[in-house]
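Figure S7 source data.
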Amino acid sequence: MSEKREHWSGNWGFLMALAGSAIGLGNIWKFPYVTGKYGGGAFVLVYLCCIMVIGLPILIGELTIGRTTGLNPIGAFAALCPKRSKLADLLGGIILLSGIALITFSQIGYGILVMLLGAVILYGGWKAIGLISGVITPFLILGYYGVVGGWTLIYAVKAVTGNLVFKTAAEAQAAFTPIQQAAPGTWWYVIGGQLAFMTLCGIILWFGVKKGIERCSKVLMPSLFVLLIVLILRSISLPGASAGIKFFLSPDFSKLSAEAVLVALGQAFYTLSLGMGISIVYGSYVRKETNLPKSVLQLIGLDTMVAMMAGLAIFPAVFAMGFEPAAGEGLVFQILPTAFNMIPGGLGSVWSSFFFIAVSIAALTSGISLMEVIVSVLIDYFKMKRWAAVLFSWSSISILGVFCSISMNSWKNIPWMEKGLTTLFGTPPGSLFLTLDNLTANWFLPAAGMAVSVFVGWVWGVRNAVNEIRKGAGRELDTNFFILLSGMRGESGYGDSYKHIFTPASVWGFFIRFITPVSVMFVFLNMTGAIKFN
Ligand code: PFF
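Tokens for the predicted 4-fluoro-L-phenylalanine complex:
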């Protein structure tokens, strides 16, 4: 199997594919708003620190696990830890006991789920963790991400055909609400958008790694960049734009609360698509000559740049047109189409088209990366042909997506599911869409991130991981950090000898063993509500 595995054609193709995954709705509808809310430039600094503490170590860890084994998440964990692992047993045992405790507190539904999870980990060890993070999580995330992806496509088509003309925010809201709530008359519309999004993902994946994912990322990512630059130029040249730039970037250190730090940590984690198996799978297509740390640094640069660019395209226009900033769906689907439409000069539809094409690209390239995780498991594990694996993932995720589409903001469209869930779990929050979002973003992703860092740091071992990273990496990896940073490399007396202690490799090892898991633990506790800062 492994000798037939496809590889990225080179560093650029790999970088674009990885950027396609990382640059998604997180960059466009979350980053700009949280930056504005939590202290502008000051928040950006904290965010960059978080990227270094959590993002970079785990991302390198996941890519390394993938490259060294050349396998999907399940196979990769199994290959690197073929024997029983005490740590996995301990983890499984603790989870199982927590499940029993939950049942005794009459939380039957959650108790059964948690017990099952513990039992699966006790039985399968690290392989089970690969199954959860590499199959179940992507399946659940794509179930609801596809719905939002569908909206972005619907809005892009509407904008391009000149049908996205709103004069007031109220009008935009009136147009969006039926879509968001999947009012009975608009079902076909929302489901159609979701299916179209999933179908596009499927078609691209059908062509494979190089001809599908890589080729389309190489075209789409630079296009996204160009579209954003045009939008920024338009946006910042509007009268009154400076208020938006001020909201977005002016540093305000007084807003840097503990909560802001946790938001920055969570954002760093989400934006790099960690804990979803994506980087393990994309890593498995990387050649040994590729310099992983260098690619990761380039990726972080691109991802942060696009997030900053999105803010500069969005807020100046929002403020110049007299709107209040918001986050998420409200910002992207209500405020922005109206603001872009109101831009004088009669080109409103052009600006909205540019914007929604950009958002669709961001969503699509993230969607394909997630679907590829499942496809890779089906190909490696069940020896399916690519077309069959794509068809299988496409259809199963689409079915989940259809349920999500019709249960966007309430359960009222699927009463039997509501009844079942209420019996098991008490009142389920919001809707199927919100439940999946909450379950994955708040529980599965941070837990998987922690698992990856513990696995690399303590089970597979930093020594093995660093040996893999060394392939393709320059001598910088083992050169004294201060000598590198000071620019004194090669200077006589300093040299770039390998015999240094404080090197990028050793710092990474220290982080992945101690600092990263503890930081993710804080994100986890915060997201699940176990600790609260205010
Ligand atoms: N990095 C992505 C983002 O910022 O939107 C996270 C992501 C979400 C990736 C959903 C893939 C996906 F399907």
